[in-house]
Amino acid sequence: MISTSSKSDRFRRQTAQLDLPPRVLLGPGPANVHPRVLTAMSTPPVGHLDPTFLAVMDEIQDLLRYAWQTENELTIAVSGTGSAAMEATLANVVEPEDVVLVGVKGYFGNRLVDMASRYGADVRTISKPWGQVFDLAEIKTALETHRPKILALVHAETSTGVKQPLEGLGELCQQYDCLLLVDTVTSLGGVPLSIDQSGIDLAYSCSQKGLGCPPGASPFTMSAKAIDKLNSRRTPVANWYLDMSLLSKYWGSERVYHHTAPINLYYGLREALRLVAEEGLEKRWQRHQTNAELLWQGLAELNLVCHVEQQYRLPTLTTVRIPDGVDGKAIAGKLLNEYNIEIAGGLGELGGKVWRIGLMGYNSRPENVILLLNALKQVLYF
Hints:
Elements: H1 4-14, E1 24-25, H2 35-41, H3 51-68, E2 74-79, H4 82-93, E3 99-104, H5 107-118, E4 122-127, H6 136-146, E5 150-154, E6 156-157, E7 162-163, H7 169-175, E8 179-183, H8 195-198, E9 202-204, E10 217-222, H9 224-231, H10 244-251, H11 263-279, H12 281-301, E11 317-321, H13 328-339, E12 341-342, E13 344-345, E14 354-358, H14 366-381
Parallel strand pairs: 1-12, 3-4, 3-5, 5-8, 8-9
Antiparallel strand pairs: 2-10, 6-7, 9-10, 11-14, 13-14
Helix pairs in contact: 2-11, 3-11, 12-14, 13-14
Protein name: Alanine-glyoxylate aminotransferase apoenzyme
InterPro entries: Aminotrans_V_dom, Aminotrans_V_PyrdxlP_BS, PyrdxlP-dep_Trfase, PyrdxlP-dep_Trfase_major, PyrdxlP-dep_Trfase_small, SP_NH2Trfase/AEP_transaminase
Enzyme class: transferase
């Protein structure tokens, strides 16, 4: 039996002012947040149908169109994490027995398979070893074989650090009359990407990586062709909360109440997107590439090997092979406990085999690279 005094002590600890260590978040996300974003989030909330907040929503849409390089009218922030936006892409265009072809080369390709299956899709897959990419010929053969209504691929595979080439995919999908659905969770804001130029019909992302905002307000975009698929459904969208035929009325000119938006998170997302626009996409992409190359050079000098060939490496997320005889989890624990630096281990097939190091958004800075490399040297060799 717990004594009354023990309960009181525990309650006092639980109700004490929140005091967390100042971590440097160099894992796969979330990343540290720009101070301007935190300041924006401290702005007092207004109502979710207040005209001033509706104007904020309009600004978010315009800024997202810039960040994604698209003219898609239905470009919004889903009130939820990136997984909610991921599910929204499938929920709105998949009907029972639709053939959905998923390229699986990592953990999140498998998640797409799981989600599509739950909506009754006839899911087909093509696979590559974790750390490799699909070439255009492989995808063309699969489209010819399976004739899917949707092709789903991960542009930036967070579990492997692989950047899937997108060139030519839009044209292929037009040729085979299927929608192109792309995961840009770890690429938006840090990796060259153009929705319209690449012929992408559906894309989703998150707020806590390349955009440098806390999680919970997740970008989503849908082409006119994908909207036609939504509007011609034989069955209702099976997910009410993520039904774009309803959400579009809240984000569009009708302004029909759908749900209470996470107002302060949207303030933060707006500011994060303003920072993207102020820096400019090309400069931002180059900053991420330059800092990633600085990291890769430093890792090589520490005799650490990257898991992915350089031409296919993400500048936002690097996978590093854990040397033989090294306890990867213990090293990550030392970085966290002794240096306040967070990196992550591998997922799925790469569990225990790699570390995942993120340089995303506000965190993609040379001082963070140098800090991490010096700390790694200490915990590995001293």
